[in-house]
Design brief:
With 128 residues, the protein is mostly helical. It contains three helices and no strands. The chain has one domain. The N and C termini lie far apart (38 Å).
């Protein structure tokens, strides 16, 4: 959702928050419902693993923000949200937020792919 807006646009952060927190909620609700449906129950375990991994990725993403804020503070640097993104973190700052952000996106795609794979498999079984 955030990709619709430039990184400096005020709605970028809001859309990002909705996307990052919204997909894990949806993944858990949808996976629970699908796991109780005929045909989907045999894929319940991998779907639950992939749905829960979306939350793990969100926790890692949040933790990376916390680590970055702490290391900014310990380095004596005041974070200015209006400054915009930089290519590199200042010396003494652990900035892995970009990595954990991409991990979150990849894990979300993994859940979508797992659901799609099972839907395709069930569709093929029905046509036989």
């Amino acid at each position: 959702m955030a990709s619709v807006f430039d990184v400096n646009h005020p709605l970028h952060d809001l859309a990002s928050t909705f996307g990052i927190l919204g997909l894990p909620v949806a993944a858990m609700l949808i996976t629970g419902a699908l796991g109780r449906s005929p045909g989907w129950s045999q894929a319940k375990t991998p779907l639950l693993w992939s749905a829960n991994s979306t939350w793990i990725a969100v926790v890692l993403f949040a933790a990376s923000f916390g680590v970055m804020a702490l290391t900014f503070h310990s380095a004596g640097i005041v974070m200015d949200p209006r400054a915009g993104p930089t290519a590199h973190a200042p010396a003494g700052v652990i900035g892995v937020v970009g990595v954990t952000d991409r991990l979150t996106v990849a894990v979300n795609y993994l859940w979508v792919a797992a659901v799609a794979w099972q839907a395709i498999r069930l569709s093929r079984e029905e046509t036989r």
